Amino acid sequence: xxxxxxxxxxxxxxxxxxxxxxxxxxxxxxxxxxxxxxxxxxxxxxxxxxxxxxxxxxxxxxxxxxxxxxxxxxxxxxxxxxxxxxxxxxxxxxxxxxxxxxxxxxxxxxxxxxxxxxxxxxxxxxxxxxxxxxxxxxxxxxxxxxxxxxxxxxxxxxxxxxxxxxxxxxxxxxxxxxxxxxxxxxxxxxxxxxxxxxxxxxxxxxxxxxxxxxxxxxxxxxxxxxxxxxxxxxxxxxxxxxxxxxxxxxxxxxxxxxxxxxxxxxxxxxxxxxxxxxxxxxxxxxxxxxxxxxxxxxxxxxxxxxxxxxxxxxxxxxxxxxx
Length: 323
Ligand code: NDP
Prior knowledge:
- It contains 12 helices and 14 strands.
- It has helices spanning 11-22, 37-44, 49-52, 67-70, 91-112, 152-157, 161-180, 203-212, 229-241, 258-268, 292-296, 304-318, and strands at 2-6, 26-31, 53-57, 75-78, 118-122, 143-144, 184-189, 191-193, 218-219, 223-228, 247-251, 254-257, 277-278, 288-289.
- It has a 7-stranded parallel sheet, sandwiched between helices. Strands 8-10-12 form a 3-stranded mixed sheet. Strands 6-14 form a two-stranded parallel sheet.
- Helix 1 (11-22) packs across helix 9 (229-241) and helix 5 (91-112) runs parallel beside helix 7.
- The N and C termini lie far apart (44 Å).
- The structure holds NADPH dihydro-nicotinamide-adenine-dinucleotide phosphate.
- Residues 7, 9-13, 32, 39, 60, 79-83, 98, 122, 124, 166, 189, 191-192, 202, 204 line the site of NADPH dihydro-nicotinamide-adenine-dinucleotide phosphate.
């Protein structure tokens, strides 16, 4: 089978391409510039790439730019979306437009193609948990599942524009799929960690780095879900291959409070500059994610601690961390 992956050079996109090639797929990777060796070099070295990977230029913001890339493919994995580490100067142009209009354009090209059977979209837990009372100190039994949706107004009010971008992009995708009869399955990963294939540092890897390199001085009152990048890629392919897959799927192996993250890291890497000061005396948030839905599809997860260790290993190898 032949499939297309947008954002093929990214942290998650690269793992999807790697596993697809390992499974024998022909892969069309859509990237901003196929000639940019610094960004795509690692893809060209993947086993099977020479024989079965073709890179193509795809401009998310240009309507129709993916029409020819999707013509003849059986499925589309849409992973491309900005994942900024700080608020970009122009939120609309740099973040919301590529996420939302980009998704609309990708889905429109996919629905024009006569061969695409299913689109798998990479959304996020940011489209699930960004609302006022998702995590709370009071309700210890709260289990967050796929029925939860982030609140766009709340996202705007706390200037969480990335969460806004993912929420609106996913909503746009569902509206489009319903109106056009497109077979869409959505992945909602939590914080994704593991071996980094690209040569650049991505946002989720940077979160763990922040706890180790001294740049984070206080432990925030926040919850994390963790999932191994290889499992995220595997789940995307599961979602494409299993006809019974439908709707959204939370991808998360374990839920931890930032305090637990700091404690775990201190045990694993006592020599690093792990923050030990809790940000305030607010009661700790509690709650858990449920990934039961994807588990029912047959998905098994790697323990989060392995994902963290492999993330740190990559950071050391790349020279991003020296403790
Ligand atoms: P990366 O930053 O590594 O990858 C993002 C990809 O999107 C890159 O290929 C990037 O291309 C592409 N992209 C971004 N903006 C544009 C644009 N304007 N035009 C064309 N391409 C663009 O991040 P991840 O791999 O982590 O993210 C991939 C997807 O997974 C995103 O949709 C993200 O929201 C989602 N996700 C990630 C999580 C995580 O913890 N990492 C958690 C949950 C969801 P280029 O390199 O050229 O900029």
